[in-house]
Write a sequence for this structure.
């Protein structure tokens, strides 16, 4: 099974990423609350490539959103699909880089944001490993039943 963690960085990356999630959600029949309202089983066939299924049948994008300032994150949250993201997956600083690449690279907050992002990716890996182990156990039980 293929699973993708979508990484959005900076103002441009987060604006493009927000539109990406609108399109992907529409293609899979996911509404802005994360609920499936599609009309075809094909929409759910590979939904776990981009989404984790949360409690209550809600689908949550497997995404990490990173920026040096909170403004872009606020824009994403207040956008059409902003409520489907996990709040923990927003990683941002407070000062920003003022559209100056060199200043952004020099900021210590970049290092902190990178560290936070690595922690989130590590959590996803642990979750996916645990899920894969559970699926393996179910497959083994099914094989024993057939024997």
């Amino acid at each position: 099974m293929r699973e993708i963690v979508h990484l959005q960085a900076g103002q441009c990356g987060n604006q493009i990423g927000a539109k990406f999630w609108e399109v992907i959600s529409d293609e899979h029949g996911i509404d802005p609350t994360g609920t499936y309202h599609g009309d075809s089983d094909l929409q759910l066939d590979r939904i776990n490539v981009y989404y984790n299924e949360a409690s209550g049948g809600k689908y949550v994008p497997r995404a990490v959103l990173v920026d040096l300032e909170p403004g872009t994150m606020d824009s994403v949250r207040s956008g059409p699909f902003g409520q489907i993201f996990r709040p923990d997956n927003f990683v941002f600083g407070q000062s920003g880089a003022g559209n100056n690449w060199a200043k952004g690279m020099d900021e210590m907050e970049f290092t902190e944001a990178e560290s936070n992002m690595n922690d989130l990716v590590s959590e996803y890996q642990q979750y996916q490993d645990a899920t894969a182990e559970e699926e393996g156990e179910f497959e083994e039980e099914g094989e024993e039943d057939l024997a």
Observations:
- The first strand starts at residue 6 and ends at 9.
